[in-house]
Design goal:
Chain lengths: 79, 79, 79, 79
Amino acid sequence: MTDNISADRLRLFIERIERLEEEKRGIADDIKDVFAEAKATGFDAKAMRVVIRLRRMEKHHRDEMDAIVDTYRAALGMA
Amino acid sequence: MTDNISADRLRLFIERIERLEEEKRGIADDIKDVFAEAKATGFDAKAMRVVIRLRRMEKHHRDEMDAIVDTYRAALGMA
Amino acid sequence: MTDNISADRLRLFIERIERLEEEKRGIADDIKDVFAEAKATGFDAKAMRVVIRLRRMEKHHRDEMDAIVDTYRAALGMA
Amino acid sequence: MTDNISADRLRLFIERIERLEEEKRGIADDIKDVFAEAKATGFDAKAMRVVIRLRRMEKHHRDEMDAIVDTYRAALGMA
């Protein structure tokens, strides 16, 4: 790096990213903790994940997907 | 690497892994092609993925998960 | 869900996880923004990621890895 | 599904994808086996992965990346 200014700027960018990644890892751990807490209370983590994924969908889209999946399950003898 | 034998052995391992990774990428492309073909026929790729994931589960486990998810959806007003 | 208490508790767990996942997505976007800012300043995002990955390693471990990779590169004619 | 033909067609697509996914999992296991074999021979799996990733790059691109990473490492006191 030809001059110190660029080196300092690079360091600032790198350290900003590292702090954000650290924060992200912290939140990922918090999510794990909440699932563990729910599990200890008797809830099923896998089923909770399915429901969370469904809640992210618009209701009309979710209803449409439900209908298609049910149709495919029936067609494949999985109803 | 102190001697040519190790260098050759390393190359053999690396090339074996590269061939396998190449093969794996080829199959991933084939899977994409089948989904595209199904989509062109009018099937819904996302719903197919849900059904394929469900088919990987044992029937009794799948029934249990269905029941729990339905219970949670009802409890959250998503039935 | 037999009683309202469990339904409420499930909702609380689900909403806590959703808020944390929302926060995590926000931070992932922030990370992307910083890389974009660095790129606009003339830095190379891929090289920055390599350096960030290396900085996560203990120095002695990093030096050891450097030495092994250099040896392997030389053995494979990639020096 | 209104008629049996679509149900059969859906089943065929699903079974083709399942066979390909099975094949892909098999190859992923083979890759793990080769790494384990190399490790048992004394090679370092992580360093091998770094080298394999570098070999996937065009030589001129690899040389360019090497130069940038070295510059950044020097700028950050990681040379």
